[in-house]
Amino acid sequence: MTTIRQLFALIVATGLTLSTQAHAALPPGDKAPDFTLPASLAGHGFSFSLKEALKKGPVVLYFYPAAFTPGCTIEAHDFAEAMDQFHDLNATVIGVSMDQLDTLKKFSVSECRSRFAVAADESGSVSRLYDARLSSGVHAARVSYVITPDDRILMSYENRSPDEHVAQALMALQKWKAGSSRH
């Protein structure tokens, strides 16, 4: 039986990707653009505000091409499995794609396992602000950010493979927390 990871590896290996990668991600130290988007957590719609989320602690903002595709499903599962670690670091996780909210309501339950929210950037305006839009203009690129409560980008990680996004975000948060506790 072929697993999702095996299928994704086959797609990447054969070059059947969604499109070419976006421009370089916003660099660490830059001010994170503020946004509010319709989102879903456990199938329930709400309005996600970056500004409001940052009042509670750091935010892991990850962009992904499309719900229910092999790589995006892998990434959602990985984030869902790591949510206890993100909670321990007082971090909010939000996934963003250019899918419709109705699609994300289903994705938030099945693939995100009701553990974190996903937001609908149907116009691609937020993806554009974060240099996370594929040249096709139809999908977001696979780019992850960690944003500190002072609205600054702590980490940006861009890679078509979903495999390291969770680890990179956790490592950046752990280093930030260690540095913050020394001050």
From TrEMBL:
Organism: Acetobacter aceti
Family: Belongs to the peroxiredoxin family. BCP/PrxQ subfamily.
Keywords from the named record: Antioxidant, Disulfide bond, Oxidoreductase, Peroxidase, Redox-active center, Signal
Gene3D superfamilies per the UniProt record, alphabetical: Glutaredoxin (3.40.30.10)
One GO molecular-function entry: thioredoxin peroxidase activity
Catalyzed reaction equations: a hydroperoxide + [thioredoxin]-dithiol = an alcohol + [thioredoxin]-disulfide + H2O
Matches recorded under InterPro entries: AhpC/TSA (IPR000866), Peroxiredoxin_BCP/PrxQ (IPR050924), Thioredoxin-like_sf (IPR036249), Thioredoxin_domain (IPR013766)
Free-text function comment from the UniProt entry: Thiol-specific peroxidase that catalyzes the reduction of hydrogen peroxide and organic hydroperoxides to water and alcohols, respectively. Plays a role in cell protection against oxidative stress by detoxifying peroxides and as sensor of hydrogen peroxide-mediated signaling events.
Gene Ontology biological-process annotations: cell redox homeostasis; cellular response to oxidative stress
Any one annotated GO CC term: cytoplasm
Protein name: thioredoxin-dependent peroxiredoxin
Domain of life: Bacteria
Thioredoxin domain boundaries: 26-175
EC annotation from Swiss-Prot or TrEMBL: 1.11.1.24
Signal peptide per UniProt: 1-24
Major enzyme class: oxidoreductase
